[in-house]
Amino acid sequence: MKIAIVNDMMMAAECLRRVLVEHPGYEVAWIAKNGAQAVQMCLNDKPDLILMDMVMPVMGGVEATRQIMAQCPCPILVVTSSLETNAALVFETMGAGALDAVKTPVLSSSHGETDVEEFLRKVDMLHRLSSYKVEEALIKKREFTSNGIRLGNPIIVIGASSGGPNALEIVISSLPVSLAAPVVIVQHIDPDFSRELAKWLDKSCDIPVHLAESGQRPKVGHVYVADAKAHLILDESGVFRYQEVEDWHAYQPSVDVFFESVVSNWYGDVVAAMLTGMGRDGAKGMLALYHAGHYTVAQNEASCAVYGMPKAAIEVGGVTDILPLADIVPALIARLVDTDVRRAI
């Protein structure tokens, strides 16, 4: 795999280069000292993955990511020395199309191999995800039905990946205070960023946004973000649980795992949205929701940073509507109103 490094700090770039060249199968394609140089080098020699710093002279990582995704799209991993300090920039870069973020590995005895191992794990995961395909049999074989009659409150569930943070901010900030449903978000993100994402979204939203905690029951008028340290599910009692899933799921938390648990264990109506993202996670879950009679909407290609996940859900036949990002919240709210009207009759 050819990997490019974009970093203005010589020591950081050299550290990344040394980690990569010692790993069989990885090759350093080129090293750029700023975002503008990276855009030009990517146009001349497109790599399989770009390791993108954020704060650089001439052009920073956000604008470089935006231009690369527009002119010569390829997988981008944000690499930063401080996840907490740069959280807002990380989410903005992911909104421009970066897939994920990870701490810059530190080669020292005091840090041990933990940083390096996590960095290599993330690089390998993104490589697998970018070429990952779900066998058609896995999508079509399983069918789900909802348990019992839908007598509970409705719930809104949202899946997202690359480009998701900015798309989620637009969606969440448009939700009314009077929202008569809980909202649960499953966003592909580094585990270190789950809580920061919830805090970041909470600043943009009129209703409270929390990290979903094990044992919680989703409450009307609250937004919950899945912790990426494990797969989020709803158990038979309708409360949040986290579990490890040893199967083909390429990303944690998995949209499919959560959506499928909702189909089985939520007793009210479900309104589901699939936002921008790379890969096919969520296609099975959307199809299961659709077959169970729930409303599903996918973000359209023109408004997506990456069209992979919405496209996959559409291709398997699991989508009721395909809409621009700006039209998704009105559609979700209209569906909730329609649900209330049907119950009143």
The CATH topology of the largest domain is given as: Rossmann fold
**Helix residue percentage:** 25-40%
How many helices? The count is: 12
- Which CATH C-level class of the largest domain is it? Alpha Beta
User: For the terminal residues, how far apart are their CA atoms?
Assistant: 59 Å
Tell the overall outline.
elongated
What is the ordering of alpha helices and beta strands?
EHEHEHEHEHHEHEHEEEEHEHEHEH
Give a quick account of the main beta sheet: strands, pairing sense, barrel closure: 7 strands, parallel
- Judging by the overall fold, what is the CATH architecture of the largest domain? 3-Layer(aba) Sandwich
* Beta fraction: 15-25%
Q: Give the beta-strand count.
A: 14
Q: Order the strands across the largest sheet as they lie in space.
A: 8-9-7-6-12-13-14
Total separate domains: 2
Uncertain spans, ≥5 residues at pLDDT below 50?
132-150
What's the overall average pLDDT, rounded? Answer: 86
Q: What value does the Rg take, in angstroms?
A: 20 Å
Structure description:
The termini are far apart. Helix 10 packs across helix 11. The chain is of the alpha/beta class. The chain is about 40% helix and about 20% strand. The model is unreliable at about 130-150 (pLDDT under 50). The chain has two domains: about 1-130, 3-Layer(aba) Sandwich (Rossmann fold), CATH 3.40.50; about 135-345, 3-Layer(aba) Sandwich (Rossmann fold), CATH 3.40.50.180. It has a seven-stranded parallel β-sheet, with helices on both faces.
Descriptive key words:
elongated; Rossmann fold; 7-stranded parallel β-sheet; 345 residues
